[in-house]
């Protein structure tokens, strides 16, 4: 009889240990549920809360944009475009680029113009 109680006690202890291990994994999986979150929506829907935390390409470009005058432009007694005092920028040839569409630009034979200009 004594050995029968010993076997039952050992079986009971094994059962308790196995059930305790099973319960501890169940509790752990419930507390760790936030880390194993699965989303069945689109990428934008799943990462909606992280979207504002990441730096976007547009905000990076705005920050890179220079919004100041260069130090060379702030130089004292330095004429703009090498012009004389009081002279308009259009009179100085170094300031403005050459006209892109002059009136008399000529015509090549490739375009089959009417006049030989």
From TrEMBL:
Organism of this sequence: Arachis hypogaea
A GO BP annotation: regulation of growth
Span list, region Disordered: 75-106
PANTHER family: PROTEIN RALF-LIKE 32, RAPID ALKALINIZATION FACTOR-LIKE
MF-aspect GO terms: hormone activity
Biased composition (Basic and acidic residues): 75-90
Keywords: Disulfide bond, Hormone, Secreted, Signal
Keyword Secreted in annotation: yes
Position of the signal peptide: none
Descriptive protein name: Protein RALF-like 32
């Amino acid at each position: 009889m004594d050995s029968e109680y010993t076997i039952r006690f050992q079986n009971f202890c094994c059962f308790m240990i196995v059930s305790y291990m099973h319960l501890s994994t169940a509790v752990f999986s419930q507390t760790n549920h936030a880390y194993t979150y699965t989303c069945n929506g689109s990428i934008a829907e799943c990462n909606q809360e992280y979207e504002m935390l990441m730096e976007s390409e547009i905000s990076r470009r705005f920050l890179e944009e220079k919004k100041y005058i260069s130090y060379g432009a702030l130089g004292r007694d330095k004429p703009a475009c090498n012009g004389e005092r009081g002279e308009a920028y259009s009179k100085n040839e170094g300031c403005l680029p050459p006209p892109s569409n002059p009136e008399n630009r000529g015509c090549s034979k490739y375009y089959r113009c009417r006049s030989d200009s």
